[in-house]
Amino acid sequence: MTPEDVLAIAKARAAANRAKYGHLTDAERIQALPVQNFADREDLVDKWTAAFRRPASQARLFPVQAEVLETAAWAAQHPNIGLVGNVRVGGGKTLAFNLLPEVFDAKRPVLLLPPEMLEDYKTALYAWSQQFKFRRVHVVKYSELSRPEGTDLLRRLNPDLIMADEAQALRHASSARTTRFLRYMEEVPETRFVPMSGTLTGATLSDYSHLCYWALRQHSPLPHREDIVDLWGSVLNADGEPDEDAWLALEWLDKDAAKRRNVDAMRKAFQRRFASAPGVVTTYDSSSGARLVLTADYPTVNNDVRDALEQGRETYALPDGTELVDAVHYHRAMQQLSMGFYYVWDWEGEPDVEWLAARKAWWGACRGYLKDSAREGVDSPFLVEEYVRREGRPKGLVDALAAWDAQRHKPPPPTRAVWIDYGPVMRAVEWALARPRCFLWWRSRAVGELLGELGVPKFGEGDGTPDPRKHPRAALSIAVHHKGRNYQAWDDQLVLEVPSSGAWWEQLLGRTHRYGQTSPEVRCSVFQRTWPQRNAFETALDRARYIQDTTGQPQKLL
Q1: Nearest partner of 110 among 97, 123, 128, 121, judged by Cα
Q2: What is the DSSP string of 236-297?
């Protein structure tokens, strides 16, 4: 086949795609997007500061805030278009959100916000209101959008502008809040949408392709079609497994990278196209001038923990014999064992033996099937269950699943912690007492409770936030405090239970390593005493590299 033949076939395929879908292919559309570049951001700062600053104020906008407003001014000239803010943690999104309704001339603006950020938002809003003029914004917590009574919340508010802080909260299209958001956008497509986050993506393009679509529509630098998102993602994602078609589909980005099958180079080529697309604002600088130092901490591992981890790796079971039902439960349990404990059922009264027996029989049968018969398409508990329901075989699994189906509607009993080694938590307390001010980061309820009992003030769900004058040392729940909080009064921390998400790490480190940090150095130590903790950290590093390479957002973990 001659080069002319190949070119003719390519042109024919492109024409067929245009005929089939009525527009350019995703690759052609994205390749044709103009390049957006604001060369002189200081001029933008002068322009937009003058537009919104109160007469007696001397405050100035940050360059990224001015760029957000300039991008919004461009978007306002196009119907239905918003913007995408790939803005680093601590980059000043709060003020930018409150100035956007004026630029868009929005009459009914709504800001979506994580519930744990509401008090900090109100505090920041009051401070900024003394310096800048902005319109009233109706704030909706993501939790309100998730509740049963929130099913028509957006329809009742009828916003003409939806702004999403920590927009990764809309990452999962199957969640109630995302479903309700997408339904409203489909019903009222003229609504403008502005997602902003320092962590738009965690591991895959599908984390934010739908957000880019509703924000930028035809200007989105990501594919519109889900199958193309998946195809590109097989090359670009943190855990992608590309085939020949995937590399060919991305040749237009970087022909040499595709030829050499170079994932890093292809990610960087994608990042250049993403960050330069009209309507996308990306920050490339650090949120703090402080030096950031990460170190590993290696508490001693006793024999009981070592044996429990080995048993868990070999049998997918806890020390009391409880089956670990899937990969999520397995990895969580291995991290908990690394901290010296595991959870057991804490029945009120007699155990429900039917529930226990059915659960154990199903997961035991499922585990045995995966050990002996796993194959592509049937290589996880979820896929085994789908296969059994679809095919009606093998009989042993059909019977076990039927028995479990008859019991699985029952709520599981509460749990209590069984400690086999207090050493890691004791080590953490000793570490904290040797420092004038610091945080201990924990994930498991049992760890937080033990830290509190040992005298370190604990801050979990509903416990408020630490005060640097009253709580120079504090134990913080990662789930509750890792995002949206300003903790620049502290500069030292120890992570006990290690997140495997690069996005979580970016947010967590951004609590202290952020604008306003006056210490010349921010330090973070990380427990690396066991293989589950080391594996989790390596996974987080891989995902941080994916985020940095594909979005251009520098990752603190790197």
Answers
A1: 97
A2: HSTT----HHHHHHTTTT-HHHHHHT-HHHHHHHHHHHHHTSTTEEE--S-S-SSEEEEEEE
Predicted pLDDT at 329? 85
- Cα(127)–Cα(417) distance, integer angstroms: 44
Q: What are the beta bridge partners of residue 341?
A: 419
Mean pLDDT of all residues in 412-421: 93
10 Å Cβ neighbour count for 170?
Answer: 27
How many Å apart are CA 114 and CA 169, to the nearest integer?
8
Q: Indicate if the alpha-carbon torsion angle 95, 461, 338, 362 is positive or negative.
A: negative
The reported pTM is 0.80
412 near 435, Cβ under 8 Å? Answer: no
SS3 164: strand
Residues 6+ apart with CB under 8 A from 103: 69, 72, 73, 76
Q: CB–CB of 206/233 below 8 Å? A: yes
Residue range 376-394: mean pLDDT, rounded? 85
Residue 22 has pLDDT above 50, yes or no: no
The per-residue pLDDT for 287 is 67
Task: List the single range of 80-89, 149-158, 324-333 with lowest mean pLDDT.
Answer: 324-333
Q: Any idea what DSSP says for residue 523?
A: E
Residue 6 predicted with pLDDT over 70:
no
Q: What CA dihedral angle connects 364, 365, 371 and 377, to 10 degrees?
A: -120
Phi-psi region of 377 (alpha: psi -120 to 50; beta: other; left: phi over 0): left
Is the per-residue pLDDT at 401 higher than 80?
yes
Tokens of 368: 């045995």
Neighbouring residues of 171: CB distance < 8 A, sequence distance ≥ 6: 178, 202, 207, 208
* DSSP state, residue 378: B
Amino acid at 409: H
**CB atoms inside a 10 Å sphere around CB 520:** 9
Collapsed DSSP state (helix, strand, coil) of residue 495: strand
Taking CB atoms within 8 Å and a gap of at least 24, the contacts of 121-129 are: 121/94, 121/165, 124/94, 124/95, 125/94, 125/98, 128/94, 128/95, 128/98
Phi/psi of residue 278, nearest 5 degrees:
-65, 135
Quote the CA–CA distance of 247 and 254 in Å, as a whole number.
Answer: 10
Is the Cβ–Cβ distance between 75 and 81 less than 8 Å? Answer: yes
Using the predicted structure, report yes or no on whether residue 448 has a pLDDT greater than 90. yes
Q: Is the pLDDT of residue 14 over 70?
A: no
- Cα separation, 466 vs 491, in Å, equals 14
Please tell me the predicted confidence (pLDDT) of residue 2: 56
Match 């993403």 to its residue by tokens.
Answer: 274
CA 544 to mean position of chain CA atoms: 11
Q: pLDDT > 90: what percent of the chain?
A: 70
Distance between CA atoms of 113 and 90, rounded to whole angstroms?
15
Of the pLDDT bands very low, low, confident and very high (cuts 50, 70, 90), residue 124 is: confident
Long-range contacts (CB closer than 8 Å, 24 or more residues apart) made by 37-43: 37/276, 38/67, 38/70, 41/66, 41/67
Instruction: Say what the pLDDT of residue 372 is.
Output: 84
Amino acid at 318: L
Cα(490)–Cα(516) distance, integer angstroms:
11
Structure confidence at residue 328 (pLDDT)? 81
pLDDT band at 5 (very low <50, low <70, confident <90, very high): low
